[in-house]
């Protein structure tokens, strides 16, 4: 059985998502690869909507990301990675009650998935420096990333706080 702490969920790091500029693509991909390389199991969440149709080039994971043998792919159609997907059954098959999250977009799919997972009772760790988004009308991507790390750190889910750590801190925990 895989060590629970080493289940990694990588959200929407796809060609079609990155048509829009995203903050620090290369740095985020590098840190996500460090997590992928050390994770016991990797689950790629892949959004399918509009031009990003399942199986298309836009749907594919970014070419710079490592895709280990045995990685699991879950297709979603909403911001919530649990909504009408197989994610919960995949986690049950892995006996995973905890996992680490990274990916895109901080303020949409990453945020929604973290909040739903915490409400469902999963112990969630967020890789604070391995998620990204784009600039929005009234706020920069960097500001959104910082704000969301703060919100997740202080999220009120009694008995199940979300943990926010850097990639290096997570890798040290996985020793």
Strand content: 15-25%
Estimate percent helicity: 25-40%
Largest sheet: 6 strands, parallel
> Count of DSSP E strands?
6
Strand order of the largest sheet: 3-2-1-4-5-6
The residue ranges in which pLDDT falls below 50 over 5 or more consecutive positions are: none
What's the end-to-end separation, in Å? 17 Å
In DSSP terms (H or I, runs of 4 or more residues), the helix count works out at 5
Provide the structure class: alpha/beta
- Rg computed from alpha carbons, rounded to a whole number of angstroms: 15 Å
Overall 3D geometry?
globular
The helix-strand sequence is: EHEEHEHEHEH
Mean pLDDT: 96
Characteristic key phrases:
six-stranded parallel β-sheet, 175 residues, single chain, alpha/beta
Provide the fold topology.
Blueprint (H helix, E strand, L loop, with lengths): L6 E5 L13 H14 L2 E7 L24 E5 L10 H7 L4 E7 L1 H14 L3 E10 L8 H13 L9 E3 L1 H7 L2
Parallel strand pairs: 1-2, 1-4, 2-3, 4-5, 5-6
């Amino acid at each position: 059985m895989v060590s629970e702490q080493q289940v990694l969920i990588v959200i929407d790091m796809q060609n079609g998502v990155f048509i829009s500029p995203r903050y620090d693509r290369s740095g985020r991909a590098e840190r996500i690869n460090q997590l992928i390389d050390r994770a016991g199991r990797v689950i790629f969440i892949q959004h399918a909507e509009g031009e990003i149709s399942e199986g298309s080039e836009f749907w594919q994971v970014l070419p710079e990301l490592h895709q280990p043998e045995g990685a699991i792919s879950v297709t979603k159609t909403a911001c919530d990675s649990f909504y009408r997907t197989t994610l919960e059954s995949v986690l049950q098959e892995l006996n995973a009650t905890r996992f680490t999250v990274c990916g895109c977009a901080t303020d949409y799919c990453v945020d929604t998935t973290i909040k739903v997972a915490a409400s469902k009772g999963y112990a969630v760790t967020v890789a604070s420096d391995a998620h990204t988004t784009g600039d929005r009308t009234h706020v920069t991507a960097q500001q959104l990333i910082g704000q969301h790390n703060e919100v997740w750190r202080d999220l009120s889910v009694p008995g199940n706080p979300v943990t926010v750590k850097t990639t290096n801190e997570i890798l040290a925990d996985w020793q």
